[in-house]
Specification:
Elements (H helix, E strand, L loop, with lengths): L1 E8 L8 H14 L16 E3 L8 E10 L10 H8 L4 E9 L6 H4 L2 E9 L4 H13 L4 E6 L2 E6 L4 E9 L5 E8 L7 H8 L4 E14 L2 E3 L24
Length: about 240
C-alpha cells in the first residue's frame, strides 16, 4: 500500500537540512511502529520518497512524503495525529491518504509551486509593484544562476506563471505571492526576485501550494481541510504575457 503524507515545516525547523529532517522522519516511523516496506539487497532501506526539495531557511505548509507500507493493519485517518506527536515541534502532518501504486513520483508530477515571499531591499511597496509590472510586461527575463555549481544563463520569463502583491508583512516588508514553474526547469523564489530587480532579496519565504497540472486541470497532490493551516485558500490570477 502506498500512502502520501502532507506536512508543514515551520518556525525554527526551517533551518534544519533535508538530511536531518529525513532522520527525524525515520525516528518518528520507529516510534509509531509504522509497518514500512523495505528495499531488497545487502542494505535494505525503507521505501520512502520525498517531494520537491525545500531550500534551508524556507517554511512550507505543502511538503509531501510518499511511503510504502508492508503487511499489517493501519488506520490511515489516525496517521496525522500519531506522527505529528512523534515529530519535533515545527513539523506537523496535515493530511494522509492512500494513493495509486502506479502514480508518478512527486518530482515527475508537480508542475508549479505557489510561494509567499517577503521582499527585502531598497525598494518600498510601490517600487516593488512597479518592478513586478515591468518584469511581467517583458518578453524575456534573462538571468545567470547556479546549477550544480556552474553558472547557467536562462530566460526565466516563461517560468513566472502568476504574481500578486498582497500587502505588507509583520516586519513591514512588501509581500508577494507568486506561482513559479517547476518544469521543464524550476525557478526558485530568489531567482524570481533577481529577475524582477537585481537589488531585491528574499526575507521570509513560505511554500503555500504544489500543483499538478494534467489535461487542462490542476490539483494539489493532497488537499487538506481549510482549518488545517493558516495559508490563504484563494488562488492567484494567472498573468498573461504582454504582446
Amino acid at each position: 500500500m502506498r500512502v502520501r503524507l502532507r506536512f508543514a515545516k515551520l518556525g525554527k525547523l526551517r533551518w534544519t537540512s533535508h538530511r536531518d529532517v529525513a532522520r527525524m522522519w525515520e525516528r518518528a516511523f520507529r516510534r509509531v511502529r509504522l509497518p514500512l516496506a523495505y528495499t531488497e539487497g545487502f542494505s535494505p532501506r525503507p521505501r520512502v520518497s520525498f517531494g520537491l526539495a525545500l531550500s534551508t531557511g524556507h517554511e512550507s505548509v505543502a511538503e509531501y512524503l510518499d511511503l510504502e507500507l508492508g503487511d499489517g493493519q493501519l488506520e490511515i485517518a489516525a496517521l496525522p495525529a500519531s506522527l505529528s506527536a512523534a515529530l519535533p515541534v515545527g513539523i506537523d502532518v496535515l493530511a494522509a491518504a492512500v494513493i495509486d501504486d502506479r502514480a508518478p513520483s512527486l518530482q515527475e508530477d508537480v508542475t508549479s509551486c505557489t510561494w509567499r515571499v517577503e521582499v527585502a531591499g531598497p525598494l518600498e511597496r510601490e517600487g516593488v509593484a512597479a518592478s513586478v509590472q515591468r518584469a511581467l510586461a517583458a518578453e524575456s527575463l534573462v538571468i545567470t544562476r547556479q546549477r550544480k555549481g556552474q553558472p547557467v544563463t536562462d530566460d526565466v520569463r516563461p517560468a513566472i506563471l502568476a504574481v500578486q502583491l498582497v500587502g505588507v508583512g509583520p516586519t513591514g516588508l512588501p509581500v508577494l505571492e507568486c506561482e513559479l514553474a517547476t518544469q521543464p526547469r524550476g525557478l526558485r523564489p530568489s531567482e524570481f526576485l533577481l529577475a524582477v530587480h537585481p537589488d531585491l532579496e528574499e526575507a521570509n519565504v513560505r511554500r503555500l501550494y504544489q500543483w499538478i497540472e494534467r489535461d487542462g486541470a490542476r490539483r494539489e497532490p493532497l488537499p487538506l481541510p481549510v482549518d488545517a493551516t493558516d495559508a490563504p485558500r484563494t488562488e492567484l490570477t494567472p498573468v498573461v504575457r504582454a504582446g
